[in-house]
Design brief:
Elements: E1 6-11, H1 14-31, H2 35-54, E2 57-62, E3 66-72, E4 78-82, E5 86-93, E6 101-105, E7 109-113, E8 118-124, E9 127-132, H3 136-149
Parallel strand pairs: 7-9
Antiparallel strand pairs: 1-2, 2-3, 3-4, 5-8, 6-7, 8-9
Helix pairs in contact: 1-2
Length: about 160
Amino acid sequence: MTGIGYQHSQRGPWSTLLAALGLGCAVAALLADDFFARVALGVLVVVFVMTAAAFHRITVTGGDEALHVRFGPLPWFGTRIAYGDIATVEAGRSSWIDGFGVHWIPGRGWTFNLWGFECVRVQTARGCVQIGTDDVEGLIAFLRTKIAAGPRRGQPA
């Protein structure tokens, strides 16, 4: 990705909640008398803290050829959508069924969402991708310029 034409990050409260749970487990582990309880609580500390770091923010970046969606700062989860694969984009609302984080639901497609229900629905030949954002209008405007400018997959350039 050489040029960045769009970049927006959104934060949600989940990382704070997960970090607090990790801290609670750490305190419980220090107070526990049983070795196995300490080990189990220690494992929970690692899980909560790593998950908090993985879902601290969602960043949507528009490069030259594709849109990148990444959770972070630990970049474990995300996706890349080539502009040539995009058929349509529209504003939408996810529902409680879609949840937060990364989910695939049959008949609904992929959801990448950190907080709130506002999203941009990106329709590709492989299905729908819902990208949660607090900048719906900005992302749609950017994507529409990109998909209008380039050829679609399977069509001549």
